[in-house]
Design goal:
Blueprint: H1 3-13, E1 17-22, E2 27-32, E3 37-45, E4 48-57, H2 65-73, E5 80-83, E6 89-97, H3 103-129
């Protein structure tokens, strides 16, 4: 079974809505709106699996945002806040090894994002609005 097929199987086992699937690029986009997961990109970039969700775009009033996000990174079980390549968007990002990836590991990473969104969404919304 290819890494792409294995990840697809795991996502289906976990009950995620796969909204986009590109086998050539080995990319999935999933949603679990009730859990705060929307357009989460899962990219099989051998040897790693990249899990990334856009959260908000930075604006001119970033005072305190970076400090707050870095402090929160310390509490996140899996993954972390990061800047995208443009330096203007905050994303949640996690990477896992594809070679020995199992269902529990992927579930733990996705549960970490769900927990983050449940506990921290009001702060993220505040950052996005300012």
């Amino acid at each position: 079974m290819s890494n792409f097929q294995k990840v697809k199987f795991y996502l289906q086992e976990l009950g995620y809505d796969i909204t986009t699937e590109d086998q050539a690029d080995e990319v999935f986009v999933i949603n679990a709106i009730d859990d705060g997961i929307q357009n989460l990109v899962i990219d099989c970039e051998s040897p790693i699996l990249i899990v990334e969700q856009f959260l908000f775009t930075l604006n001119d009033h970033t005072e305190g945002v970076f400090k707050n996000l870095l402090q929160k990174n310390r509490e996140i079980v899996h993954g972390a806040f990061a800047l995208d390549d443009t330096g203007t968007k905050i994303v949640f990002r996690d990477t896992l090894q594809l070679e020995n990836l199992d269902l529990n590991e992927l579930e733990g990473s996705l549960n970490s994002l769900k927990l983050l969104m449940a506990e921290y969404s009001s702060t993220l919304l505040k950052f996005a609005k300012h």
